[in-house]
Amino acid sequence: MKIRILFYLIGLFFLGLGATLTIKANLGAGAWDALNVGLSHAFGLTVGSWVIIIGIIMMFLNAIIVNGKPNFLALVTILLIGFSVDFWLTVVMKNVVFEQFFHQVISLLSGIVLISIGVAMYLQTKFPANPIDQFMLALNKRFRLNFMVAKTIGEISALILALIMQGPIGIGTILITFLIGPIIQWMNTPIAKGYESLIKR
């Protein structure tokens, strides 16, 4: 159980840090993060608060997709991610600015990798998934799409909404939209093997 909880918390820790790095790179955030930033600028509240609000909306949408009931335990995951994002954005990296293009690229790529590792890690634990990732799982379950395709569909949907809300869209957004699914798919196998070996000890 300790390993399970550790994987869960570290995964969410990486996810929050990764999202913050992609936002701070200022080259275009991931579609969902761009949507949350756009909503924050348009209506107030912190980015993390919008992570929580959008997560709750997605929780009900996922239930509709799989013809089931909302997984209210996912609220724990939603809150932890929202608080994590706000912690990194408004406390740890509040005054961090990447002015050189090289540093922006490093921040963006590091963020993409950390998000992918974080998602792959915490999904191993079978704790309630972040509704954004649950959307990927719901599409996988309902339409038997692999993670890569399902995640990309979710990213493109969020991209359209982010454009409407005038979120920070750029080359980074495009890279994240089309790379995040394949990288999660690629990371999932070795992380799953590592998790299983630790659990069996």
Automatic annotation (TrEMBL):
Membrane spanning stretches: 5-23, 43-65, 72-89, 101-123, 143-165, 171-191
Domain of life, source organism: Bacteria
Keywords: Membrane, Transmembrane, Transmembrane helix
Keyword flag Transmembrane helix: yes
Keyword Nucleotide-binding: no
Protein known as: Membrane protein
